[in-house]
Amino acid sequence: MAVRKNQSTLTSTEKREFIDAVLGLKRSGRYDEFVRTHNAFIMGDTDQGERVGHRSPSFLPWHRKFLLEFEQELQRIIPSVALPYWDWSTDRTPASSLWATDFLGGDGRSRDGQVMAGPFANLAGNWSIDTQVDTRPFLRRALGGGGRALPTRADIEAVLAVETYDAPPWNSTSRGFRNLIEGWRGVNLHNRVHVWVGGHMATGASPNDPVFWLHHAFIDKLWADWQTRHPASPYLPETPTENVVDLDSTMRPWNDVTPRDMLDHTRFYTFDT
Amino acid sequence: MRTRRRFLRGGTAVLAAVAVAGTTASVLDEESARVNRTGQGRPPRGEAGEPFDETYKGRRIQGWPTDHGHHGTGSGYRVLIDGTELHVMLNGDGTWVSLIDHYEVFATPRALARSAVDNLAGADLVPRPAHR
Q1: Is A202 within 8 Å of B103 when comparing Cβ atoms?
Q2: What is the pLDDT of residues A80-138, one digit of tens each?
Q3: Most buried of A69, A159, B65, B118 (most Cβ within 10 A)?
Q4: Which class for B53: exposed (0-12), middle (13-18), buried (19 or more C-beta within 10 A)?
Q5: Up-side HSE of residue A159: CA atoms within 13 Å toward CB?
Q6: How are beta strands B77-81 and B84-86 bridged, if at all?
Q7: Of A74, A90, A191, nearest to B97 (Cα)?
Q8: Pairing label, strands A2-4, A269-271
């Protein structure tokens, strides 16, 4: 059983194995299938129509399944690898070891946003952007661009305190835990982190930056933390609802997995804390 | 001659945009009526955004309302940067996101187009791949 650890506690061997597995997936072409799938869902999920991966109750179970598939692909390359998570409320500056050259590499340079160091710098020869939104073939970042700040622990606590999972109209205007953590309403957790990283992470093709997985692994952990705090709060909606995935309906693109199947993460992995 | 052609082309685009906006208004009225009848949701405020056509930081940005859901964007609005379509989406509260800024909302499609130009820093958009 995989144990997902805080990225700040990884040994240098664990970091190297994670990087090697990600680069192996990129070489095989399989990595870009994940980028394309995410991009297709983010463009297709609308507030007014069918929505599965984003701006809807299934945002959390959809990403849990998406990360599981990715983690399983990594483990086919290096079996001991687990997805680390990034607690951005603690490791909240570009000086964090997360952005060091032995892990994800640093900020983009100011002229064009190009990441110049680390294993995912285009100059290192192993990371070209093949699923593009624009013509630039290199990974881009603008950490904290525009003077933005990452969410604080107090912001997280405010969201975890909300008792109701989600609410009609089950989209980006909803009140409830899911939309507060996704960030379309309130203090804004998940969306704000994408914007803080900038570059590819701000776009629909955000998995082009490997930090995508560490960000979502922490969002996923916060869902588990919320469940622990509110054991009587169910996933909503529990009954068939137009355009939305209810508890027992299957989610695209897999079509054989429901939100109920994803509720208990301990079937698949545990966390270090 | 080049300048004159550019001017004419721009003029045609604006005329076409105005014509499209005219048709869109009635489509939107029907949509609002349907939404009100069924009692589901509410007509989004920003949907019938004004057309625009300007040069921003040396890039031509254009936007105009379209038939609801045309081009598969579900937005009822098209935005071009130097003639290439930028995927945009209307949120339930009338704000907008684009493919370039998909986690940050903008009050108008014009603001979203300008932000995309800032982000592109001179690079070109990749035309949207065909649906699989």
Answers
A1: yes
A2: 999 999 999 999 999 999 999 999 999 999 999 999 999 999 999 999 999 999 999 99
A3: B65
A4: middle
A5: 25
A6: antiparallel
A7: A191
A8: parallel
**Strand-strand pairing, B84-86 and B88-90:** unpaired
Q: Quick one: how far is CA A97 from the chain centroid?
A: 19
Predicted ipTM > 0.90: yes
User: Is B125:B84 a contact under the CB 8 Å cutoff?
Assistant: yes
CA distance A206 to chain B (A): 9
User: Are the C-beta atoms of residues B117 and B57 closer than 8 Å to each other?
Assistant: yes
A258 Cβ contact list (under 8 Å, min separation 6):
A61, A245, A247, A248, A249, A250, A251
Q: Which residue of B has its CA nearest to A169?
A: B41
Distance (Å, whole) CA A243 – CA A168 = 12
Pairwise CA distance, residues B104 & A11, whole Å: 35
Q: Residue A60 CA to chain centroid, in angstroms?
A: 10
Q: Which residues of A touch B104 (CB under 8 A)?
A: 191, 195, 202
Q: Is A93 helix (H, G, I), strand (E, B) or coil?
A: coil
For residues B95 and B44, give the distance between their C-alpha atoms in angstroms, rounded to a whole number: 9
Neighbours of B131 (CB within 10 A): 8
Coil, helix or strand for B88?
strand
Residues A63, A53: Cα–Cα separation, whole Å: 7
φ and ψ at residue A204, rounded to 5 degrees: -65, -20
Q: Positive or negative CA dihedral for A6, A11, A16, A17? A: negative
CB contact under 8 A, A202 and B101: yes
User: Mind listing the pLDDT tens digit for each residue in B71-124?
Assistant: 444 568 999 999 999 999 999 999 999 999 999 999 999 999 999 999 999 999
| Backbone angles phi and psi of B88, in degrees to 5 | -125, 160
Contact B103 A195 (CB under 8 A): yes
